[in-house]
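User: Predict the structure for this protein chain, please.
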Amino acid sequence: MRKFLWLLLLVLFTGFIFFNSSMSAETSHNASSLLAQWLDSFYSAIGDPMPVDRLEARLRKLAHLAEFAMLAVIMVNTFIAWRISNRVASGYILFLGLAVAVADEYIQLSVPGRNAQITDIVLDFCGIFIIWCCRQIWLWSKK
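Assistant: Here is the predicted structure, written as structure tokens:
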């Protein structure tokens, strides 16, 4: 039962990533702009203001990294639940992570006001790769 829950969570989270990519540029901008304005007021309060547009750009890039890091965590737990060996799971995690990143950017090609960027694919894959590396280091340290 647990393995099907992880698989369902993996499918749902991948759908969440694709849903975010299918939002129009205006809707996506409004969501990140709201957070950027809130953070700007926080930074201003501590005396270190940053232009909102720069802050928003950094938040958007950080979101790519965090979203795919979370996807990697879910993938790792899915493969653990299905008792797939680390060697096989590693290949799937890295390949599927890259495939989802490419598909994510491909979806944005058909969304008004959005475009695909290679740098976003690299950031997405970095999120996957960081979690994968942490898992490998953790497994190595257990030996």
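The CA atoms of residues 30 and 36 lie 10 Å apart.
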